[in-house]
Write a structure and sequence with these properties.
The protein is mostly beta strands.
């Protein structure tokens, strides 16, 4: 990238997926770790950093809080991440809860997975729910609050029919296969 300054995040040097910042624009490229390695422009809206994979082969890249706030017990708050992205057509960003926050503190993503459509250019925000009935949860700037998974998606052509084809499952759902 001509006229670009190379910068590496906490783990990118280890994993070989460095990003670049174009002078004066605040535009960063976040490499999708998939076959064909897509580059995704990441606009830093506030003081945040680009999403990062904690380990090689991870599906989700960590999203960090760009603001400090308290989530009272049993309540939800929408948390800014400080970034906006430009996904290529045919891709979606899925915002998932972090398993450690869920297991240790009862913090989850309310509409999991949250959907970031390819055409969306606004700041990514994450609605977190504190499921703990007694303890508030404090979020500090820079805390890892969710994971962003990038996936290829196919658009469907919806066709109205009079009857659906039969399948081995039929209409069984909501526990129809039992628990054992």
């Amino acid at each position: 990238m001509a006229g670009a300054i190379s910068k590496c995040g906490r783990n990118e040097e280890k994993f070989g997926s460095c990003h670049s910042e174009k002078r004066g624009v605040g535009l960063m490229l976040f490499r999708l770790r998939s076959i064909g390695m897509k580059e995704v422009p990441v606009l830093i809206v506030t003081t945040s950093d680009v999403p990062e994979y904690a380990h090689p082969g991870d599906a989700g890249a960590d999203l960090r809080a760009a603001e400090a706030l308290m989530i009272p017990a049993g309540e939800r708050r929408t948390v800014a991440t400080g970034i906006a992205i430009a996904l290529p057509d045919g891709y979606v960003g899925l915002v998932h809860p972090r398993s450690g926050l869920s297991a240790k503190y009862g913090i989850t993503v309310l509409n999991a997975p949250g959907t970031v459509d390819a055409a969306y250019r606004g700041e990514i925000k994450v609605t977190l729910l504190n499921t703990d009935k007694h303890n508030d949860f404090e979020i500090k700037i820079g805390d890892r609050i969710a994971q962003l998974v990038i996936q290829h998606v196919e658009a469907a052509k919806w066709i109205r029919v009079e009857k659906l084809p039969d399948s081995h499952r039929g209409e069984g759902g909501f526990g129809s296969t039992g628990v054992n």
